[in-house]
Amino acid sequence: MVQPQVTKYYMGMALMTALSRQRKSKLTVTAFLKEAEICRTTFYNHFPDGICGLYRWLLEDRVLKEARESFEAGQWQAGCQVIIDFIASNANVCLNLYRFSDETERRRFFKRFSMDILGSFLLKYQEQFTESERACFIEFYSDALICQLEHWFDSGLKLPKEQLNERVTFNLAHFQQILASEQ
């Protein structure tokens, strides 16, 4: 019997392959299953919420896991660089994922991750702010980061990754300065 992680990994790599070739206008589950030679039952056993679940798992497994390790080690710039480098190196895959994903689902994904990043910043300032104040900081700066990412995707990733990294770094450094000045 094949282990679930191996099967998920295979499906994730098959999705990367399918999305890396060219810009696609649509990717149906049926087309993906045929190309990946996976039966529908196997697919839905691993991803009950369908292709969006596979997208989410792929991003979590390929990118966010490594980025979170950097954030948890206090290296937020390195974590941001991991994400930006992955997107730039896999432009077709990421643009296709962005286009195919449901806007609400995509925003929820971006929001959850950006709030995790910002929440890790606040750990060292935890006693300095009320829970409500921390939530306001996180909400405001999370939306700023999401706006930068959405702008980059909406432009077809035309902005050089160095410029996006500079914008993200500026936002996060500004956030850190505000927190430090409040001490």
Structure description:
It is a single chain. By secondary structure, the protein is mainly alpha-helical. About 80% of the residues lie in helices and about 0% in strands. The protein has 9 helices and no strands. The protein has helices at about 5-20, 30-35, 40-45, 50-70, 75-90, 90-100, 105-120, 130-155, 160-180. The relative contact order is 0.10.
Task: Supply database-style keywords.
183 residues, 9 helices, mainly alpha, 78% helix
Strand and helix map with partners:
Elements: H1 4-20, H2 29-36, H3 40-46, H4 51-72, H5 76-89, H6 91-100, H7 103-122, H8 131-154, H9 161-181
Helix pairs in contact: 1-4, 1-6, 4-5, 4-7, 5-6, 5-9, 7-8, 8-9
Summarize the structure.
The chain has 183 residues and is mainly alpha-helical. It is 78% helix and 0% strand.
Mean pLDDT: 83
Helix and strand composition category: mainly alpha
User: What characteristic shape results from the CA principal axes?
Assistant: elongated
* Order of helical and strand elements: HHHHHHHHH
Number of strands: 0
Low-confidence stretches: none
Number of helices: 9
Main beta sheet: none
Strand content: under 5%
The share of residues in helices is over 70%
C-alpha termini separation = 56 Å
Specify Rg, calculated over alpha carbons: 18 Å
